[in-house]
Write a structure and sequence with these properties.
Length: about 300
Amino acid sequence: MQPPYKRKSLSTRSKHPGWIEISIEVHPSAHEALSAFLFDLGCKGIVLGEKERPALRAYFPSTEFLEEERNRIDVFLRKLGDFFPDIGRPSLHFSQIQDEAWSHTWKKYFHVERITERLTVVPAWEPVPQDSEGVVIRMDPGPAFGTGQHPSTRLCLRAIETSTRRAPWSLLDVGTGSGILAIYAAKLGASRIVATDTDPDALRWARRNIELNDASGWIELSSQPLGKWSGAFSLIVANLTRDALLELLPAFQRLLESKGALILSGLLQEQVQELKRPLELLGFNRSQVATEAEWACITAKKME
C-alpha cells in the first residue's frame, strides 16, 4: 500500500486548460478523511507528502474548480478539527499548473530509492543504476498518487524481507495499491501470492507494475473481500488505516497459519497501542514495532 487512500488517474490531453493544485499542510491522521472529501468534490488526483514536500496535494481541472469548491474546502477544513482535535489549523494554498508542465514534472517526486541493502526501487522511466545490487523493482506509480517512497511502504518492505521463511511460503497483500509489496514477495521467492484491493484503479496500476516486473505468473490480483477467502498464508501484510486494520483483525487471524507473521502499517506511532491489546486477544504475541518519521509498522506472530 502503499499509503491508504483512493487513487485516480489524471488526464494529460494536449489541449487541457491546466490544473489547480491545492496544497494542504495537515497532520497525517487526517489524510484519509481529507482525501475522501476531495475526491467526492471532483478531485482527479492526490499526492501525499513526500520527503521534500510534506503537504497533501490535490489536483482539479481548472475549468471545473469554481469559487463554490474553494468555499466548501474552507468549511471542511474548519470542521476537521471537531474530529481531529489535536491536528492544529491546516494551511491551504492554491496554484495554477499548466497541463504541459504537469504531464512531465510529476515524475520529479519519484526517484531511485534504496530501501534496504537487498532492495532498490527504480522508476520505470529511469535506468537501473549500475551499482545496484540485490533485488530491483521497477515501478510506474502513475501521476495521481504517492510513490514507494512513503515511510509506511518502506516499513512494510523491510518487514517482509525480515519475515520470510524457508520455501514454500505464501503472502496475502491486503490493499495492494501499486502492487509493490506483492512484487517484492515474488522476488523473494513466495510460492503463492494474493494481492487484493477494493479500488479498481489501484488494481489496474498494480497489474501494470506486476507485468513490468515479470511477476504475473506468481501474483493473483483480486477485488474479492477477505470474508470470501479461505486457506492459510504464511505472511499477511496490510498497509491501511488504523480503523480498517482493527476491523480486519479477525479475518487476518483466520487466514494466517500457525506461527505466521502479520505485518500492519499505515499507522501513526501514537496509534500502535490501540492495536496491541486486540492482537493479544486474538492470539498474537511477540509484537515488534518499527518506526520511521511519524509512521509505525507492527509485526506480530500468531501463536500455535
